[in-house]
Amino acid sequence: MTIDQIYTRFLSCSTVSTDTRTISENCMFFALKGENFNGNKFASEALKKGASFCIVDELEYAVDERYILTANVLNTLQQLATQHRKQLNTPIIALTGSNGKTTTKELINAVLSQKYNTIATKGNLNNHIGVPLTLLELTKDTEIGIVEMGANHQKEIEFLCTIALPDYGLITNFGKAHLEGFGGVEGVIKGKSELYVHLKQQHKTIFINETDTLQIKQAGDYDDIIKFGNDISLEHAPPYFNITFNTSEIKSKLTGIYNFNNICAAIAIGSHFGVPDEAIVSGIETYVPKNNRSQLIEKNNLNIILDAYNANPTSMLAALQNLQIQEHTRKIAILGDMFELGKEASQEHQAIVDFVGDLDVDSVIFVGRHFYKTNSNAAKIRFFETFEDLKSKVSELELDNALLLIKGSRGMALERVLDLV
User: Fold this and answer.
1) What dihedral angle (degrees, nearest 10) is formed by the CA atoms of 312, 315, 317, 318?
2) Which end of the chain is more exposed for a tag (fewer CB within 10 A), N or C?
C-alpha cells in the first residue's frame, strides 16, 4: 500500500497511537518495535480496544483489511507525518539545543497560544518517534506548530528536519550534553547546527540570540536571521526574576537566570508573529514550570528547587550559580551523576566537585558512582555511592530550614528525594 493510500485512511481516523494502553476509538495504531518488544504482537489487541487500522510489518499479523502491511512501521510513521505536514502546510517552528529546549518550547507555546491555535511537542517527545507524532496532531485549524528536536549524536537533527520541514528554527544553546554520542563539545556544536544548515538550504528563517557569539558564528552569513536579546533587560527578584522589554515588565514564575535567554526567545518569536506585548506578558507570567524542571516546591520547612529532570556539566553549573545568588539563610544542594559524558565523565564530575568547594553554600551532597570516585577535602561536601546509601543517612544531613537544590541526570531519578524530606 502506498503512503498516499495510508494517508487517506489516516484522514478517516481520529488520532494515532503507538501504545495499546492509550488506544482511543477510531485511531490508527502503529506497531512499533524496540529492543525488548514487538508491537505487531499487540495489533489485534489494539483493534479490540477500538482502533480502526493497524500498521504492521510482519506478514503473519496482517490477517484482514484492517491490518496495513508495510516494510517498516517506523519509516511509515515518519513518512506519513511528513505527508501530513506537507498537505496542511502549517508554519512549523523547530527548536533544539543542549539545555532549556522543553522550557523554551513551553514558553513559546504559552506566548503564541495567546493569539493562535497552536500545537506543541508534548513533554519531551522530541526524537525520531516523538517528532512524527507531534506532526500528526496538526489539524486544518492549527495555525502554528512548535516542534522540539532532541539529539544525542550527529545527523539526528538533520534527519528530524527532513521529517518536520521547519519554516523557522531556534537553537537554545550549545553545552556539554551527550558528549559520548556527539564525540565531544565540537561534535555537539556541529550536530545542533544541523538545524541552521537545513534552514539555510531551504531559505527559511533563523531566530538567534545575538548575545551568543558562538551561535552567531555558526549561523554565518545569512540574510534571513532574526536577532534578539540585546534590547531585553533582567532584574533579579529572588527566587524569580523580572524582565523588561519595550515598555512592558514581566514578573516570571521561573527561577534561574539561565531561563532568561529562554524567555527572550519566546518574546522574540511572539513579537515576530504579531502577538501584542500585553499578551506576551500574560503568556509568560502564567507559565509555571513542571515535570521536575526548575520547579519551586515548599515541603515541611524546606524550600526546594526541583530540577531533577536531567543534568549535564553546563546545566549543573548554571543551577549551582543560581543557588548561590538566592536569598536564604541556608543553602544545600543534592546533586546526582551526569550521564552520557563518555571519556570525559571523570573530568567533568571532578570539575563540578572542585567548583562547589568555593561556592557560597552550606552543604553539597553528591550521589552516584561517578561523583563517588571524585575527591574533595571540603568539609561541606558528602558523597554517597547510591541513592539507597543516601536514603539510609538522610536523617544525618540536617536539611531543616534550608533552600534545597535537587539536580541530576534522568537515570538518577532524584525526585525521589522528595519522599525523604
Assistant:
1) 180
2) N
Distance CA 357, CA 312 (A): 19
Mean pLDDT by groups of 10 residues along the chain of 421 residues: 95 95 95 91 94 95 93 97 97 95 96 98 92 97 97 95 98 91 92 96 96 93 93 88 93 90 96 97 94 88 93 94 91 96 95 94 96 95 96 90 95 95 89
pLDDT of residue 256: 86
- Tell me 39's DSSP state: G
Which cell goes with 149? 528536536
CB 131 within 8 A of CB 81: yes
Q: Is 96 exposed, middle or buried (0-12, 13-18, 19+ CB in 10 A)?
A: buried
User: Is 103 labelled a binding residue?
Assistant: yes
| 34 carries a ligand binding annotation | no
Residue in the block written with cell 551526569: 338
Q: What residues contact residue 30 under an 8 Å CB cut-off, 6+ apart?
A: 16, 17, 18, 39, 54, 55, 73, 74, 76, 77
pTM (two decimals): 0.93
What is the residue-wise DSSP string for 180-228? HHHTSHHHHHHHHTHHHHHHHHTT-EEEEETT-HHHHHHH-S-S-EEEE
Q: Is 123 annotated as a binding residue?
A: no
Domains of the chain in start order, with CATH, are 3-74 (3.40.1390.10), 90-285 (3.40.1190.10), 295-419 (3.90.190.20)
- Report the C-alpha gap between 33 and 24 in whole angstroms: 20
- 121 — phi, psi (to 5°)? -50, 130
Helix (H) or strand (E) segment spanning residue 365: strand 363-367
Q: Contact 214/174 with Cβ under 8 angstroms?
A: yes
- Quote the pLDDT of residue 11: 97
- Cβ neighbours around 77 below 10 Å, total: 24
For residue 8, the tally of other CB atoms under 10 A from its CB is 11
Contacts of 141 (CB under 8 A, 6+ apart): 117
Check whether the bond before 239 is cis (ω within 30° of 0): yes
Q: Are 371 and 349 in contact (CB under 8 A)?
A: yes
Whether 252 has a binding-site annotation, put simply, is no
| Burial degree of 55 (CB within 10 A; 0-12, 13-18, 19+) | buried
Q: At what angle do helices 277-285 and 101-112 cross, to 10 degrees?
A: 130
* Residues 90, 84: Cα–Cα separation, whole Å: 10
101 is in an annotated binding site: yes
